[in-house]
Amino acid sequence: MACNTNSLSRKIVISVCDARKLGHICNYEVDLCEGRITAVFVPGESSALGFRRTADIRIPWEKIKKIGEDAILVEVPPFVPECAPPKEKRRWFW
């Protein structure tokens, strides 16, 4: 099965660990020396009102288990250190 990045971006990314819909691919990481995709990124979770969004979630290519017609199945548990966005410190000024 041959596909391009445009068709990959239209597929929904689903975690096989907890059946979570992670979203659609928003970016790619490419190794230019070897000419292959090394990771994909899906948008981070947004807040309740949708104003803020966490950093994009990086999914290494090795974690992709199956690419189907409509979906991409990945093995990403609810918290994986290499896929989790960095913690940010909040400062409150009153």
Task: Summarize this entry quickly.
By secondary structure, the protein is mainly β. The protein has one helix at residues 5-9, and strands spanning 12-15, 21-24, 27-31, 36-42, 57-60, 64-67, 71-74.
Element layout with pairings:
Layout: H1 5-9, E1 12-15, E2 21-24, E3 27-31, E4 36-42, E5 57-60, E6 64-67, E7 71-74
Parallel strand pairs: 1-7
Antiparallel strand pairs: 1-2, 3-4, 4-5, 6-7
Shape: globular
What can be said about the biggest beta sheet?
Answer: 4 strands, mixed
Number of discrete helical segments: 1
Our Rg estimate from Cα atoms comes to 15 Å
Could you name the CATH topology? SH3 type barrels
Description of the molecule:
This protein has 94 residues and is mostly beta strands. It has a single domain, classed as PRC-barrel domain (SH3 type barrels, Roll). It is 5% helix and 34% strand. The chain has one helix spanning 5-9; strands spanning 12-15, 21-24, 27-31, 36-42, 57-60, 64-67, 71-74. The strands form 2 sheets. Strands 2-1-7-6 form a 4-stranded mixed sheet, with no helix packed on it. A 3-stranded antiparallel sheet has the order 3-4-5, with no helix packed on it. The model has no long low-confidence stretch (mean pLDDT 82).
